[in-house]
Design a protein that fits this description.
6-stranded parallel β-sheet, 5-stranded mixed β-sheet, 19 strands, PHP_phosphatase, exonuclease activity, 25 helices, alpha/beta, nuclease, hydrolase
């Protein structure tokens, strides 16, 4: 059976590793407000653990139903907690009481109870692509109870010998577990930024700002870092009881700890050395080492403590001050990775790069017509409400086609009804366009006939199945799809899920070359679990393609994910003119018209 693009596992959706971190401070101090993501993650993880334990299926289904309802509701979490989750569909009295307790104590009792019955290492198996509760239970029964143990068992033949697995499955699991082990110490960009910005809020008054991987917009973050102007005492006074295990880290000046299980580092310096601190905390390892070497060659000593010459600390309150002393150009934070080393001076300065506010159309979104959680008017309302805060003055729809049956894909009859509703909303004055995310079938053809595609304002073509085709067939499949005269843009081109699975095997350059020749737009999927096309590939192709930054939002709140796609685009040096959804609604329609006319 072909693998379907069903998304991340429940433990991954919780925002951490396969285990669960409550964020309760050791001192018992008041916790930060619980997030919707944490609530949903706790419910889904509980359901999966109950499945592993073989307990009553109705209990697991109850937790999953409650999770879906919480994802769909737009009521602020604080209001839900204050109301005891009253009125939320599928959240019964018992679950509501446990969620309320979680919000106030940091402990979700059903999850704590289920987790206590499972070996700690077994929780990590949820992070392996292709392993669900039933297979995890089979592995556990066979004595395989950790990621490392699974790797060994896949290598020595024990997994292949298990009923329901076999040699091919064992090989696939080995590849997936090695990917998981390599990724286990990193977080999604969204998590890293959330934690860094939370820290910055707690450190208000110390000029706190994100640093490290999150500042550079990397797709994953090892440690959530911030820099501040102040002392260790200043930092400790604000973070005591909020950051777990807060303690000095060598080399100083650095404090480390954890927030909701995520490693954090807070670097501090006096105002006169802040520029050097930001430089040392604001680039890749290679970038920092290169700066130190260049400073040393010029007779300076550069570190996070400041810039010194002959033992004297020089006043350098900003990064520009440090580089002026060294006689070096200021390299923007977006361009401080090895891939930029040879090209950064040819890329636009930050002031010219695309921003969230530049985006006008949110082109790839989902509604209740497929697997979204909100109606089309509700999605439009949120897009208009967000406005410049998330980019967007109009909503472009993108509900799934019929092959995506697992995602409530639309039959031809439902597609036609969907288009009729959109036309009615347009006549009522709503800023909405009719698009669909149409599956690319195994042979590269599209899931709807051309006559139905022509009723849409634009078409997003995406792969959601047959990920295991060999490189040659997968490449031919996508080349055919991007060359179709009615395909406006290619959705999530490589199919990767960040920290979850690599993309499928294909000759990406051949696919992108075909897209360039056909004038097909290539998506930068802003969902933090995708960020596909990768910024490194976008950087290589920036002068040959047109791109779209799309959220792939399935709930109204997901429309705010544009910030992550913009981070990818900025790392690739993209300006507004290279991103098609910086066009207004009528301009975008004219673009599609020109695209179709050019293809005859």
């Amino acid at each position: 059976m072909a693998e379907k693009d069903s998304g991340a596992s429940a433990p991954e959706r919780s925002g951490g590793t396969a285990g669960h971190s409550t964020g309760l401070s050791p001192s018992g101090a008041a916790l930060p407000e619980v997030t919707r993501k944490q609530l949903v993650g706790a419910l889904n993880t509980t359901a999966d653990l109950l499945d592993v334990l073989g307990q009553e299926p109705f209990r697991a289904n109850a937790y999953r139903g409650a999770a879906r309802s919480l994802e769909a509701t737009e009521t602020p979490v604080a209001d839900l907690v204050a109301a005891g989750f009253a009125g939320v569909p599928k959240v019964g009295k018992a679950i509501a009481a446990d969620l309320t307790a979680y919000a106030t104590t940091g402990l979700f009792a059903p999850l704590e109870d289920a987790a206590s019955q499972v070996e700690p290492g077994v929780l990590g198996l949820f992070r392996v692509r292709g392993l669900g509760p039933k297979k995890i239970r089979a592995l556990w029964d066979a004595g395989i109870d950790s990621l490392e143990g699974l790797r060994e068992a896949a290598q020595d033949g024990r997994v292949a010998a298990l009923k329901g697995f076999g040699p091919k499955s064992a090989a696939t699991i080995l590849e997936a577990v090695e990917f998981t082990l390599a990724a286990q110490d990193r977080q999604h960009l969204s998590t890293g930024l959330d934690v860094a910005e939370t820290l910055a809020g707690w450190l208000d008054g110390l000029e706190a700002r994100p640093a490290g991987d999150a500042r550079r917009g990397l797709e994953t973050v090892r440690v959530a870092r911030v820099t501040v102007t102040g002392t260790a005492e200043d930092v400790t006074a604000r973070l005591a009881g909020r950051v777990d295990d807060l303690a000095p880290v060598d080399p100083k000046p650095l404090l480390g700890g954890r927030v909701d299980g995520v490693p954090v580092e807070i670097a501090y310096a006096p105002a006169g050395a802040r520029g050097a601190l930001d430089l040392m905390m604001g680039g890749s390892t290679g970038y920092r080492e290169s700066l130190r070497a260049k400073a040393k060659a010029r007779g300076f000593d550069l570190s996070g403590r400041g810039l010194k010459r002959e033992g004297t600390l020089l006043p350098t309150p900003t990064e520009a001050d440090v580089l002026r002393e060294l006689g070096l150009p200021l390299r923007p934070a977006e361009y401080r990775d090895p891939e930029h080393d040879e090209v950064w001076e040819t890329l636009p300065p930050p002031a010219e790069l695309v921003t969230v506010a530049d985006l006008k159309g949110l082109l790839h979104t989902h509604s209740v017509w497929s697997d979204g959680a909100a109606t089309l008017p509700e999605m439009v309302e949120e897009a208009v409400r967000l406005g410049g805060a998330a980019g967007g003055t109009f909503l472009g729809t993108g509900d799934h086609s019929r092959a995506a049956h697992y995602a409530n894909g639309m039959s031809l009859e439902r597609l036609r009804a969907y288009v009729r509703e959109i036309r009615e909303l347009q006549r009522a004055g709503l800023p909405i366009l009719a698009g669909a995310e149409v599956d690319i079938l195994e042979d590269g053809s599209l899931d709807y006939p051309d006559e139905d595609l022509l009723t849409l304002d634009y078409v997003v073509a995406s792969v959601h199945s047959h990920f295991t085709l060999d490189r040659e067939r997968q490449t031919a499949r996508l080349v055919r799809a991007v060359s179709h005269p009615l395909v406006t843009l290619l959705g999530h081109p490589t199919g990767r899920l960040v920290l979850r699975r690599p993309g499928y095997a294909l000759d990406l350059d051949a696919v992108l070359a075909a897209a360039a020749e056909a004038g097909t737009v290539v998506e930068i999927n802003a969902n933090p679990a995708r960020l596909d096309l990768d910024w490194r590939e976008t950087l290589r192709w920036r002068d040959r393609l047109t791109f779209a930054i799309n959220t792939d939002a399935h709930v109204p709140a997901g429309l705010g994910d544009t910030r992550y796609g913009v981070a990818v685009a900025r790392k690739a040096g993209l300006t507004p003119s290279q991103v098609v959804n910086t066009l207004g609604q009528q301009e975008f329609l004219a673009f599609v018209g020109r695209q179709r006319a050019a293809r005859g």
